[in-house]
Amino acid sequence: MEMTHQGGAEAESLLRADQRSALVMPQGTKRIAMDLVPPRDKWNLIYLTLLLHGLGTLTAWNMFITAKPYFEDYKLVNARQYAANFMPYVAAT
């Protein structure tokens, strides 16, 4: 394997010389250490994993930040004594 010096760091090419010549690199573009073609995500597993992670994180956060208006303005609209003290009750428990 060939070692090259790139901007103060050593990078090892992962392709043979005959494979490397088949790659089309724009002029002026810095080469990176991994010049292989990225693996194909056949069933979009990476996309689905990140989508589920985002939904799981943001849904819980959205429920957390909208709890006060939901309970005080909608669920407890007829029970003003509970609505007035909703946040202290939640914070104490």
Classification by helices and strands: mainly alpha
Strand order of the largest sheet: 1-2
Radius of gyration: 28 Å
Which blocks of ≥5 consecutive residues have pLDDT under 50? none
Helicity, in percent? 40-55%
| Largest beta-sheet details | 2 strands, antiparallel
Number of helices: 5
The overall average pLDDT, rounded, is 77
Ends apart, CA distance between termini: 62 Å
What shape does the CA trace take?
A: rod-shaped
**Overall number of structural domains:** 2
Query: Secondary-structure element order, as H and E?
Result: EEHHHHH
Number of strands: 2
β-strand percent reads 5-15%
Describe what is shown at a glance.
Helix content is 49%, strand content 9%. The protein is mainly alpha-helical and 93 residues long. Keywords: Membrane, Transmembrane, Transmembrane helix.
What do these coordinates show?
- The chain is mainly α and 93 residues long.
- It has 2 domains: 1-38, no CATH class; 45-92, no CATH class.
- The chain has 5 helices and 2 strands.
- It has a two-stranded antiparallel ribbon with strand order 1-2.
- Strand 1 and strand 2 form a beta hairpin.
